Amino acid sequence: MGDIAAAQSMELPTHMRAMVLEAPGQPLRATEVPVPRPGPDQVLIRVQACGVCRTDLHIVDGELPDPKLPLIPGHEIVGTIVHKGEHVQEFCVGDRIGVPWLGATCGRCPYCRKEQENLCNEARFTGYTLDGGYAEYTAAHQRYCFRLPAVYGDTEAAPLLCAGFIGYRSYRMVGKDIERLGIYGFGAAAHVIAQVAVYEGKRVYAFTKPGDTEAQEFARQLGASWAGDSTELPPEKLDGVIIFAPVGSLLPAALNASTKGAIVVCAGIHMSDIPSFAYRLLWGERVVRSVANLTRRDGEEFLAIAPQVPVRTEVRIFGLRRVNDALGCLRRGELRGAAVLTMSDPHGR
Fold it and tell me: How far is the C-alpha of 214 from the C-alpha of 268, rounded, in Å?
Protein backbone atom coordinates (compact mmCIF):
# COMPACT_ATOMS: atom_id res chain seq x y z
CA MET A 1 0.00 0.00 0.00
CA GLY A 2 2.96 2.33 0.55
CA ASP A 3 3.80 2.46 -3.13
CA ILE A 4 0.19 3.17 -4.07
CA ALA A 5 -0.04 5.95 -1.50
CA ALA A 6 3.21 7.47 -2.74
CA ALA A 7 1.98 7.32 -6.32
CA GLN A 8 -1.33 8.91 -5.44
CA SER A 9 0.42 11.75 -3.66
CA MET A 10 2.56 12.61 -6.70
CA GLU A 11 1.70 15.74 -8.62
CA LEU A 12 0.67 14.55 -12.06
CA PRO A 13 -0.34 16.90 -14.86
CA THR A 14 -3.85 16.72 -16.20
CA HIS A 15 -2.73 16.98 -19.85
CA MET A 16 0.26 15.89 -21.90
CA ARG A 17 1.89 16.38 -25.30
CA ALA A 18 1.12 13.64 -27.81
CA MET A 19 1.37 12.94 -31.53
CA VAL A 20 -2.02 11.73 -32.73
CA LEU A 21 -3.20 9.87 -35.84
CA GLU A 22 -6.66 11.16 -36.74
CA ALA A 23 -7.06 9.27 -40.03
CA PRO A 24 -4.86 6.83 -41.99
CA GLY A 25 -2.78 8.51 -44.66
CA GLN A 26 -2.50 11.77 -42.74
CA PRO A 27 0.54 13.10 -40.84
CA LEU A 28 0.41 12.76 -37.08
CA ARG A 29 -0.77 15.93 -35.34
CA ALA A 30 0.81 17.47 -32.25
CA THR A 31 -1.87 18.03 -29.62
CA GLU A 32 -2.58 18.20 -25.90
CA VAL A 33 -4.62 15.30 -24.54
CA PRO A 34 -5.59 14.17 -21.03
CA VAL A 35 -3.04 12.08 -19.15
CA PRO A 36 -4.45 8.53 -18.94
CA ARG A 37 -5.50 7.20 -15.56
CA PRO A 38 -4.42 3.59 -14.93
CA GLY A 39 -6.97 0.88 -14.20
CA PRO A 40 -6.60 -1.58 -11.30
CA ASP A 41 -4.10 -3.79 -13.19
CA GLN A 42 -2.31 -1.00 -15.03
CA VAL A 43 0.68 1.23 -14.46
CA LEU A 44 1.04 4.83 -15.57
CA ILE A 45 4.39 5.41 -17.24
CA ARG A 46 6.26 8.63 -17.86
CA VAL A 47 7.70 7.95 -21.30
CA GLN A 48 11.41 8.57 -21.77
CA ALA A 49 11.79 7.07 -25.25
CA CYS A 50 9.71 5.28 -27.87
CA GLY A 51 10.98 3.45 -30.92
CA VAL A 52 9.52 4.05 -34.38
CA CYS A 53 8.68 0.69 -35.93
CA ARG A 54 7.72 -0.32 -39.48
CA THR A 55 4.41 -1.53 -38.03
CA ASP A 56 3.72 2.08 -36.99
CA LEU A 57 4.29 3.05 -40.61
CA HIS A 58 1.85 0.36 -41.80
CA ILE A 59 -0.77 1.79 -39.41
CA VAL A 60 -0.19 5.41 -40.42
CA ASP A 61 -0.22 4.54 -44.12
CA GLY A 62 -3.47 2.58 -43.79
CA GLU A 63 -2.00 -0.84 -44.57
CA LEU A 64 -3.25 -2.31 -41.28
CA PRO A 65 -7.05 -2.05 -40.97
CA ASP A 66 -9.27 -0.64 -38.23
CA PRO A 67 -6.90 1.13 -35.85
CA LYS A 68 -8.38 2.87 -32.83
CA LEU A 69 -9.01 6.47 -33.93
CA PRO A 70 -7.92 8.94 -32.86
CA LEU A 71 -4.77 7.00 -31.98
CA ILE A 72 -1.47 7.65 -30.22
CA PRO A 73 0.87 5.20 -31.99
CA GLY A 74 4.10 3.70 -30.65
CA HIS A 75 4.85 0.31 -29.09
CA GLU A 76 8.55 0.30 -28.23
CA ILE A 77 8.10 2.26 -25.02
CA VAL A 78 10.70 2.88 -22.32
CA GLY A 79 9.70 4.81 -19.24
CA THR A 80 9.33 5.08 -15.48
CA ILE A 81 6.27 4.11 -13.44
CA VAL A 82 4.76 7.16 -11.74
CA HIS A 83 1.45 5.67 -10.63
CA LYS A 84 -0.05 2.19 -10.39
CA GLY A 85 -3.42 0.55 -9.96
CA GLU A 86 -4.48 -1.15 -6.76
CA HIS A 87 -3.98 -4.70 -8.10
CA VAL A 88 -0.44 -4.14 -9.45
CA GLN A 89 2.06 -6.30 -7.57
CA GLU A 90 4.81 -6.96 -10.15
CA PHE A 91 6.15 -3.40 -10.21
CA CYS A 92 6.74 -0.42 -7.96
CA VAL A 93 6.58 3.31 -8.56
CA GLY A 94 10.00 4.37 -9.83
CA ASP A 95 10.70 1.15 -11.76
CA ARG A 96 11.98 1.55 -15.31
CA ILE A 97 10.06 -0.74 -17.65
CA GLY A 98 9.43 -1.43 -21.31
CA VAL A 99 6.09 -1.86 -23.10
CA PRO A 100 5.84 -3.90 -26.34
CA TRP A 101 3.27 -4.45 -29.13
CA LEU A 102 1.11 -7.06 -27.37
CA GLY A 103 -0.85 -5.07 -24.81
CA ALA A 104 -3.69 -7.29 -23.55
CA THR A 105 -5.20 -10.77 -23.98
CA CYS A 106 -8.25 -12.55 -22.59
CA GLY A 107 -6.29 -15.02 -20.43
CA ARG A 108 -9.02 -17.65 -20.86
CA CYS A 109 -8.92 -19.00 -24.41
CA PRO A 110 -7.04 -22.17 -25.51
CA TYR A 111 -4.21 -20.04 -26.89
CA CYS A 112 -3.73 -18.13 -23.65
CA ARG A 113 -3.86 -21.36 -21.62
CA LYS A 114 -1.10 -22.90 -23.80
CA GLU A 115 1.22 -19.85 -23.53
CA GLN A 116 0.33 -18.93 -27.11
CA GLU A 117 -1.20 -15.66 -26.01
CA ASN A 118 0.19 -14.04 -29.15
CA LEU A 119 -2.64 -15.81 -31.05
CA CYS A 120 -5.48 -14.76 -28.71
CA ASN A 121 -8.52 -13.67 -30.72
CA GLU A 122 -9.25 -10.93 -28.20
CA ALA A 123 -5.71 -9.55 -28.11
CA ARG A 124 -5.20 -5.80 -28.08
CA PHE A 125 -2.12 -4.04 -29.32
CA THR A 126 -0.15 -1.07 -28.06
CA GLY A 127 -0.19 1.83 -30.49
CA TYR A 128 -2.87 0.19 -32.67
CA THR A 129 -5.98 -0.76 -30.70
CA LEU A 130 -4.60 0.81 -27.50
CA ASP A 131 -2.94 4.21 -27.21
CA GLY A 132 0.83 3.95 -27.26
CA GLY A 133 4.03 5.82 -26.56
CA TYR A 134 4.20 8.80 -28.90
CA ALA A 135 3.31 10.87 -25.85
CA GLU A 136 4.66 12.00 -22.50
CA TYR A 137 2.63 9.40 -20.57
CA THR A 138 0.99 6.07 -21.31
CA ALA A 139 -0.87 3.40 -19.35
CA ALA A 140 -0.13 -0.33 -19.73
CA HIS A 141 -1.27 -3.63 -18.21
CA GLN A 142 1.27 -4.99 -15.71
CA ARG A 143 1.34 -8.41 -17.40
CA TYR A 144 2.63 -6.92 -20.64
CA CYS A 145 5.47 -4.85 -19.25
CA PHE A 146 9.11 -5.92 -18.88
CA ARG A 147 11.98 -4.94 -16.64
CA LEU A 148 14.87 -3.72 -18.77
CA PRO A 149 18.58 -4.59 -18.40
CA ALA A 150 20.37 -1.73 -16.67
CA VAL A 151 23.20 -1.81 -19.22
CA TYR A 152 20.93 -0.18 -21.82
CA GLY A 153 20.06 3.49 -21.84
CA ASP A 154 16.50 4.53 -22.66
CA THR A 155 17.01 5.17 -26.37
CA GLU A 156 19.20 2.07 -26.74
CA ALA A 157 16.57 -0.13 -25.07
CA ALA A 158 13.57 1.01 -27.11
CA PRO A 159 14.26 -1.06 -30.28
CA LEU A 160 14.69 -4.20 -28.17
CA LEU A 161 10.95 -4.13 -27.39
CA CYS A 162 9.80 -4.96 -30.92
CA ALA A 163 12.73 -5.26 -33.30
CA GLY A 164 14.38 -7.42 -30.65
CA PHE A 165 11.34 -9.39 -29.51
CA ILE A 166 9.94 -10.17 -32.97
CA GLY A 167 13.43 -10.75 -34.32
CA TYR A 168 14.11 -13.23 -31.53
CA ARG A 169 10.81 -15.07 -32.01
CA SER A 170 11.52 -15.34 -35.74
CA TYR A 171 15.04 -16.56 -35.02
CA ARG A 172 13.73 -19.28 -32.70
CA MET A 173 11.30 -20.39 -35.41
CA VAL A 174 14.01 -21.15 -37.99
CA GLY A 175 15.42 -23.89 -35.73
CA LYS A 176 18.29 -24.03 -33.26
CA ASP A 177 20.49 -26.37 -35.32
CA ILE A 178 20.86 -24.25 -38.44
CA GLU A 179 24.31 -23.14 -39.57
CA ARG A 180 23.54 -20.69 -42.40
CA LEU A 181 20.92 -18.00 -41.71
CA GLY A 182 19.61 -15.73 -44.45
CA ILE A 183 18.05 -12.38 -43.53
CA TYR A 184 16.06 -10.44 -46.13
CA GLY A 185 15.66 -6.77 -45.26
CA PHE A 186 18.42 -5.37 -43.06
CA GLY A 187 16.59 -2.86 -40.87
CA ALA A 188 15.93 -2.52 -37.15
CA ALA A 189 15.00 -6.15 -36.38
CA ALA A 190 17.68 -7.62 -38.63
CA HIS A 191 20.48 -5.53 -37.13
CA VAL A 192 19.53 -6.81 -33.66
CA ILE A 193 19.04 -10.49 -34.39
CA ALA A 194 22.07 -10.76 -36.66
CA GLN A 195 24.20 -10.04 -33.61
CA VAL A 196 22.52 -12.84 -31.65
CA ALA A 197 22.99 -15.28 -34.52
CA VAL A 198 26.69 -14.43 -34.91
CA TYR A 199 27.13 -14.76 -31.14
CA GLU A 200 25.67 -18.28 -31.35
CA GLY A 201 28.05 -19.26 -34.14
CA LYS A 202 25.72 -18.98 -37.15
CA ARG A 203 26.89 -17.73 -40.54
CA VAL A 204 24.67 -14.79 -41.49
CA TYR A 205 23.83 -13.86 -45.08
CA ALA A 206 22.21 -10.42 -45.39
CA PHE A 207 20.04 -9.38 -48.33
CA THR A 208 19.16 -5.72 -48.97
CA LYS A 209 17.40 -3.67 -51.61
CA PRO A 210 19.45 -3.72 -54.84
CA GLY A 211 22.26 -1.20 -54.65
CA ASP A 212 21.99 -0.49 -50.92
CA THR A 213 25.70 -0.83 -50.30
CA GLU A 214 25.49 1.14 -47.03
CA ALA A 215 23.15 -1.44 -45.47
CA GLN A 216 25.32 -4.25 -46.82
CA GLU A 217 28.43 -2.75 -45.23
CA PHE A 218 26.50 -2.28 -41.97
CA ALA A 219 25.60 -5.98 -42.02
CA ARG A 220 29.23 -6.96 -42.53
CA GLN A 221 30.27 -4.70 -39.64
CA LEU A 222 27.86 -6.63 -37.42
CA GLY A 223 29.45 -9.95 -38.39
CA ALA A 224 27.57 -11.07 -41.52
CA SER A 225 29.61 -13.53 -43.58
CA TRP A 226 28.12 -12.14 -46.81
CA ALA A 227 25.87 -9.24 -47.80
CA GLY A 228 24.34 -8.53 -51.19
CA ASP A 229 21.25 -7.60 -53.20
CA SER A 230 18.00 -9.48 -52.69
CA THR A 231 18.12 -10.35 -56.40
CA GLU A 232 21.32 -12.37 -55.87
CA LEU A 233 21.87 -15.93 -54.72
CA PRO A 234 24.14 -16.39 -51.70
CA PRO A 235 27.46 -18.24 -52.13
CA GLU A 236 25.96 -21.32 -50.42
CA LYS A 237 22.46 -22.59 -49.76
CA LEU A 238 20.69 -21.42 -46.59
CA ASP A 239 19.16 -23.75 -44.03
CA GLY A 240 17.08 -21.04 -42.36
CA VAL A 241 15.69 -17.71 -43.59
CA ILE A 242 13.94 -14.75 -41.96
CA ILE A 243 12.14 -12.26 -44.21
CA PHE A 244 11.77 -8.91 -42.44
CA ALA A 245 11.08 -6.82 -45.55
CA PRO A 246 7.32 -6.56 -46.28
CA VAL A 247 7.83 -7.67 -49.89
CA GLY A 248 5.92 -10.78 -50.97
CA SER A 249 8.15 -11.47 -53.98
CA LEU A 250 11.02 -12.23 -51.59
CA LEU A 251 9.39 -15.50 -50.50
CA PRO A 252 10.06 -17.38 -53.77
CA ALA A 253 13.55 -15.87 -53.81
CA ALA A 254 14.21 -17.11 -50.28
CA LEU A 255 12.95 -20.60 -51.12
CA ASN A 256 15.20 -20.67 -54.17
CA ALA A 257 18.17 -19.78 -51.97
CA SER A 258 17.34 -22.47 -49.37
CA THR A 259 18.43 -26.05 -48.95
CA LYS A 260 16.09 -29.01 -48.38
CA GLY A 261 14.34 -28.95 -45.04
CA ALA A 262 14.92 -25.22 -44.58
CA ILE A 263 12.39 -23.09 -42.69
CA VAL A 264 11.50 -19.69 -44.17
CA VAL A 265 9.91 -17.33 -41.64
CA CYS A 266 7.85 -14.33 -42.74
CA ALA A 267 8.38 -12.00 -39.80
CA GLY A 268 6.29 -8.95 -40.66
CA ILE A 269 2.75 -8.17 -39.59
CA HIS A 270 2.08 -6.94 -43.13
CA MET A 271 3.45 -8.16 -46.47
CA SER A 272 2.56 -7.41 -50.06
CA ASP A 273 0.96 -10.22 -52.04
CA ILE A 274 3.09 -13.30 -52.62
CA PRO A 275 3.32 -14.21 -56.31
CA SER A 276 2.72 -17.74 -57.53
CA PHE A 277 5.80 -19.92 -57.73
CA ALA A 278 6.79 -23.37 -58.92
CA TYR A 279 6.17 -26.23 -56.49
CA ARG A 280 9.79 -27.35 -56.92
CA LEU A 281 10.83 -24.34 -54.78
CA LEU A 282 8.80 -25.68 -51.85
CA TRP A 283 9.45 -29.35 -52.44
CA GLY A 284 12.14 -31.06 -50.37
CA GLU A 285 10.32 -30.52 -47.08
CA ARG A 286 10.96 -26.81 -47.03
CA VAL A 287 8.64 -25.00 -44.61
CA VAL A 288 7.05 -21.55 -44.88
CA ARG A 289 5.57 -20.01 -41.74
CA SER A 290 4.59 -16.64 -40.34
CA VAL A 291 5.30 -15.08 -36.98
CA ALA A 292 2.50 -13.28 -35.15
CA ASN A 293 3.10 -10.84 -32.32
CA LEU A 294 5.07 -12.13 -29.31
CA THR A 295 4.74 -13.99 -26.03
CA ARG A 296 6.02 -13.12 -22.58
CA ARG A 297 8.48 -15.97 -22.93
CA ASP A 298 9.97 -14.36 -26.06
CA GLY A 299 10.51 -11.09 -24.23
CA GLU A 300 11.98 -12.64 -21.11
CA GLU A 301 14.38 -14.91 -23.04
CA PHE A 302 15.54 -12.15 -25.35
CA LEU A 303 16.13 -9.61 -22.56
CA ALA A 304 18.20 -12.26 -20.77
CA ILE A 305 20.44 -13.01 -23.76
CA ALA A 306 20.80 -9.47 -25.16
CA PRO A 307 23.32 -8.25 -22.52
CA GLN A 308 25.36 -11.46 -22.92
CA VAL A 309 25.96 -10.93 -26.65
CA PRO A 310 25.98 -7.94 -26.01
CA VAL A 311 23.41 -6.67 -28.53
CA ARG A 312 24.20 -3.12 -29.60
CA THR A 313 21.35 -1.08 -31.04
CA GLU A 314 22.15 1.66 -33.52
CA VAL A 315 19.62 4.45 -33.20
CA ARG A 316 18.83 7.80 -34.76
CA ILE A 317 17.11 10.08 -32.26
CA PHE A 318 14.22 12.40 -33.08
CA GLY A 319 12.27 14.75 -30.79
CA LEU A 320 8.62 13.88 -30.26
CA ARG A 321 7.32 16.53 -32.65
CA ARG A 322 9.58 15.21 -35.42
CA VAL A 323 7.89 11.82 -35.57
CA ASN A 324 6.59 12.52 -39.09
CA ASP A 325 10.19 13.08 -40.19
CA ALA A 326 11.18 9.78 -38.58
CA LEU A 327 8.34 7.95 -40.34
CA GLY A 328 9.37 9.55 -43.62
CA CYS A 329 12.94 8.35 -43.22
CA LEU A 330 11.66 4.85 -42.50
CA ARG A 331 9.30 4.97 -45.49
CA ARG A 332 12.18 5.97 -47.80
CA GLY A 333 14.60 3.39 -46.38
CA GLU A 334 17.00 6.05 -45.08
CA LEU A 335 17.56 4.68 -41.59
CA ARG A 336 20.55 2.68 -40.43
CA GLY A 337 19.31 0.68 -37.46
CA ALA A 338 16.25 2.18 -35.75
CA ALA A 339 14.58 5.55 -35.19
CA VAL A 340 13.74 6.47 -31.59
CA LEU A 341 11.70 9.37 -30.23
CA THR A 342 12.78 11.10 -27.05
CA MET A 343 10.61 13.22 -24.77
CA SER A 344 13.49 15.11 -23.14
CA ASP A 345 13.47 18.07 -25.55
CA PRO A 346 10.47 20.30 -24.65
CA HIS A 347 10.53 21.78 -28.18
CA GLY A 348 10.40 18.35 -29.81
CA ARG A 349 13.34 19.05 -32.13
Answer: 23
Q: Which CATH superfamily is domain 165-290 in?
A: NAD(P)-binding Rossmann-like Domain (3.40.50.720)
Measured distance CA(222)–CA(188) in Å, rounded: 13
Adjacent-strand bridge partners of 104: 124
Residue numbers in the chain where pLDDT is lower than 50 = 1-9, 346-349
Residue 10: per-residue pLDDT:
58
Nearest CA among 59, 42, 337 for reference residue 214: 337
Which pLDDT value is given to residue 345? Answer: 60
The CATH code belonging to domain 2-161+314-342 is 3.90.180.10
Distance CA 260, CA 252 (A): 14
Planar angle of CA 115, 118, 119, nearest 5 degrees: 95
Residue 268: the pLDDT is 87
Cα–Cα distance, 181 to 198 (Å, whole number): 10
How many other CB atoms are there within 10 angstroms of residue 332's CB atom?
A: 8
Enumerate helices (H) and strands (E) in the chain, giving the number of each.
11, 17
Domain boundaries of the chain, sorted by first residue? 2-161+314-342, 165-290
Burial class (CB in 10 A: 0-12, 13-18, 19+), 126: buried
pLDDT, residue 11, reads 81
Question: What pLDDT does 9 receive?
Answer: 44
CA-closest candidate to residue 148, choices 199, 104, 95: 95
* Cα separation, 168 vs 197, whole angstroms: 10
